[in-house]
Request: fold
Amino acid sequence: QAIKNPGTRQTRTVKTLDARARIALTGTPVENRLEELWSLFRFCLPGLLGSEEAFRERFVRPIENGDDKARRALRSRVRPYVLRRLKQQVEKDLPLLTEMVVRCEMAPEQRRIYDTVRLTARRDVLAAISERGVRGATFQVLEALLRMRQACCDPALLPGEIGDGAASAKLDRMEELLVELVCDDHKALVFSQWTSLLDLVEPRLQKLGIQYVRLDGSTRDRGAVIAAFQSPTGPPVFLLSLKAGGTGLNLTAADYVLLLDPWWNPAVERQATDRAHRIGQTRPVVSLRLIAEHTVEERILELQAAKRELADAALGEEGGFVKALTGDELRSLFESA
Reply:
């Protein structure tokens, strides 16, 4: 997992280790780009997939363009050296996982703020792309998309006073869902990539009288927080940052997962859902992804679906897409829905 970027010092150092045999262990061999798979095999079996440039020429570019022959050739090449075990193969009695998208309609004021942010972002990004090209405008693109996505979640996340006093369709819908779930004796994990959004969730839960615990990068006694939630008499809601709580935790007391903001990489979201849907879970699990209607978030979902085939070509894994976007796809993110 730590050597998927061939350009890092860590990867280069690991590849110099002298060993009779080499094994790479990962749950997500391809997340963002097929070159990650090349890096893993460069460590395990140097030469199997050729040089990085040859790999791009023979496999990456053709597969990105829909070449089924290249797709089959890559699968055939790596299959003898990959031992893949899916969760449902290891634990056949794992309860059902249901994944749903909950679309949230913005109120007029939030829509106005979002459109203002989008139009400003579109102007700045198109100017940057025109001047420096897609790769040269990466910083401006990511900054613009960040602001648009924040406006989708809660305008209060935006810098300055532009979002002061505006309602949040997502957090309003989250409240409705959590009240219903708690009343029906369910427990829920609530994930966000932004701790600042979790800061806005907390007073809402306090106002509703819903008990909760929270885990993010600043949490000191993680074990105590987890134990409290896992207890049968523990709080029904667990707020988690995607980075701190998305992997390595066993939270099977929860049977609902709420993802407040879509992440570029669907594998990261899947890892978050797997905190509840894992060995030891006895109840069906429902994962709810909250999406602001007619916004960049819907376009992100569309592009994710289109780009997943890139990683599936090798191992059937889902992949991210940010670095693989074309100029036209980038521009589409800033158009009105």
